Amino acid sequence: MSARVDGPTSGAQPDRSSGSASKLAGARSGEHRIDRRLTPLGWDEAADLDKPPAPIPEISETEVPAQLRERIEALMSRYPDRRSAVLPALDAAQRVHGWCSPEAIGQVAAVMRVTPAYLSSVATFYDMLRTEPFGRRYVYVCTSVACHLRNAKAVHDAISDEADSQGLEDCDIREFECLGACDMAPMASIDGRYVGPLDTADAAEIVAALKEDREVLPGRGLTDRGFELPWAQGADTGGAQTDREADDGSGSSWARSGEHGTDGSPA
Question: Residue 206: which H helix or E strand, with range?
Fold first, then answer.
């Protein structure tokens, strides 16, 4: 069995024709640019080992909001190695700035005594840390297996379409890979608040609440006082038909629950 060779075979010479040379020159001059969608920025360039070490911002020269500094210092005090607090510290900065901007990363770096490059390497790995500005508010609809099987994609599309219809701005709406709340599928994280089970009929109210800066679907959040899943409610009422048993596969089971109206409020 012969092995496949992707580079020049033994004895072969690279093409050094004038056409090839002009292409190389054009690439060096920027005429032929690398598609960054295929090649992440920086991965195609070797590190400059002669450059001086990356500096750590001086806290005395960096303006950090007092509450953010206190929060980061409190987080660092929980761990024997201060770098263990990087994720919650970046999250705290994101809550202040709306995203992990260069300014936000610089502030965290100054307090934690690490380089901005180190923080950037962490922030670009985790999807919930945003390194580009998005909307002031967000709706992350879980479309992983459990939610997908309960019509989550249709819920996401309904919210997205309703946002366009109502002219909702400054809000990031997207599908998300597993938010870890399978028992309330289909669900979404709305500004960090887990809400569900959701239905396509909820889309209009979700968007309206976001647009009017109201709480989204009060009583339907995982941390809301008195929150119970509809099928748990059925079990508590002496074996009444549960929401799952009543589901006909259309994804509208919540609206048909005998104890709640279509907006999730008591009927």
Answer: helix 203-211
The per-residue pLDDT for range 22-31, each reduced to its tens digit, is 444 444 444 4
Looking at 9-18, 34-43, 82-91, 110-119, which range is the least confident one?
9-18
Instruction: Count Cβ atoms below 10 Å from residue 8 Cβ, excluding itself.
Output: 10
Q: How many Å apart are CA 137 and CA 191, to the nearest integer?
A: 6
Could you tell me which CATH number the domain at 59-123 has? 1.10.10
pLDDT score of 18:
47
Tell which residue, 128, 59, 63, 140, has the closest CA to residue 94. Answer: 128
Higher pLDDT, 239 or 118: 118
Task: Give me the sign of the Cα torsion angle 171, 176, 179, 182.
Answer: positive
**Mean of all residue pLDDT scores within the chain:** 80
Residue spans of beta strands (DSSP E) within the chain: 137-142, 171-176, 188-190, 193-195
Gap between the Cα atoms of 209 and 194, Å rounded: 15
- Each domain of the chain, given as residue ranges in start order, spans 59-123, 137-256
Fold of 137-256: Glutaredoxin (3.40.30)
The CA distances from residue 225 to 119, 143, 184, 233, 237, in Å, are 36, 26, 16, 15, 19
**Exposed, middle or buried, 195 (CB in 10 Å: 0-12/13-18/19+)?**
buried
Is the pTM higher than 0.85? no
How far, in Å, CA of 159 to CA of 142, rounded? 13
pLDDT surpassing 80 at residue 172:
yes
